[in-house]
Amino acid sequence: MLPRRILQARSALTIFRTRAYSTEARERVRIVEVGPRDGLQNESAVIPPAMKAELINRLTDAGLDIIESGSFVSPKWIPQMAGTPEVLKTMQRVKGLHYPVLVPNLKGLQLLLDLLSEQSRSEVPYTDEIAVFTAATDAFSKANTNCTVAESLERLEVVTKRAKKEGLRVRGYVSVVIDCPYSGKVDPVKVKDVSQALLDMGCYEVSLGDTVGTGNPTTVGKLLRTVLGGGIPASVLAGHYHDTYGMGVANILASLEHGLRTFDSSVGGLGGCPYSPGATGNVATEDVLYALRGSKYETPGDLNAIAEVGTWISKALNRTNSSRVGKALEARRARAQLEKERERDGGSAESISAKL
Fold first, then answer.
1. CA Rg, the chain, in Å?
2. What is the pLDDT of residues 210-227, one digit of tens each?
3. 147, 180, 203, 273: which is the annotated catalytic residue?
4. Residues 36, 62: contact at Cβ < 8 Å?
5. 15-33 pLDDT, tens digit each
6. What 3-state class would DSSP assign to 46?
7. 70 within 8 A of 36, measured Cβ to Cβ
8. pTM for the predicted model, two decimal places
9. Which of 159, 251, 283, 297 yields a CA-CA distance of 20 to 30 A from 238?
10. Measured between alpha carbons, how far is 167 from 128 in angstroms, rounded to an integer?
């Protein structure tokens, strides 16, 4: 056992470091809120555009600055994404914030460009960014977009070049970077190659998606060592970790150690994937923010406000809130409300306890 003085010194150092983080310059971690798009696309019911717009408005008010707001995928394939033009027109848009939309092909891009052309130059644009997506395996790519990975990259290069010519930023997604629901374990070298192809065609950033949610810090670390070792800098990578096995936050913490500073998350843990049976939602935004609270990393948004949004949308969709932090804060709010009722009505402590 270590001498007590050494243990006390270590304890004091830990306290000092924790306090220091509150005063020293902190590293910024970017959060891409994907709830309104990736989160809602797996819901069984079709969500009205007004509810989607309200969700985006609430997330904006809660302090998030990058909110994926919809998709120009055909409603025939993803009915939940119908009405994106109406969402973009009616939602609150704040200058300087980003509201990217998913665009699968040239037809989707043209629909977006036509929509943007309706705006005057003085308006805040409906969006200034698109996201394109491919996969690390042919099996998943064929199930998702009916083409091989190579064929999807050829299509996306045309979309990316046209979008950039029109002044739009382009972000890339690579799905199934750990495991594929159709072909099993994924070779990290393949992920590196696909990511490099997206960067070469003009994507400013590539989000690595553990679509099935089977990754853990060991497998994510192996993946990142391969990708980073292949010459791709951490500054152009993001982590997109589904929380199927409860490893989403752990995978983010592991990714931070490898230099990544951008992560996708979903309020209330909304999400899943229509083409990945059994995959649950994205890692919850609330859980990510709480995990980084008091650390050397600075994150956007107000945790309590975001948790309230997670409670609201979960109830609106009649689904369980998948955020552990969100549920804990909801319980705390409920208890505080009951305490206020006791003070106002003079109720007994026993009756309050019974309600809890």
1. 22
2. 999 999 999 999 999 999
3. 273
4. no
5. 444 444 445 678 999 999 9
6. coil
7. yes
8. 0.88
9. 159
10. 8
Compute φ and ψ for 84, nearest 5 degrees.
-60, -40
Handedness of CA 14, 18, 21, 23 (dihedral sign): negative
Q: Is residue 99's pLDDT more than 70?
A: yes
Compute φ and ψ for 174, nearest 5 degrees.
-120, 120
Residue pLDDT, tens place only, 229-267: 999 999 999 999 999 999 999 999 999 999 999 999 999
Q: Catalytic site residue 180? A: no
Q: What is the side-by-side strand order in the sheet with 205-210?
A: 30-33, 262-265, 237-241, 205-210, 169-175, 129-135, 101-102, 70-71
Q: Compute CA distances 342 → 253, 328, 329, 332, 349, whole Å.
A: 41, 21, 20, 15, 8
What is the amino acid identity at position 180?
Answer: C
In 3-state terms, what secondary structure has residue 66?
strand
Q: Give the pLDDT mean for 200-219.
A: 97
Q: Where are the alpha helices (DSSP H) in the chain?
A: 4-23, 49-61, 84-90, 106-117, 138-145, 149-165, 188-201, 217-229, 248-257, 285-292, 303-316, 324-345, 349-355
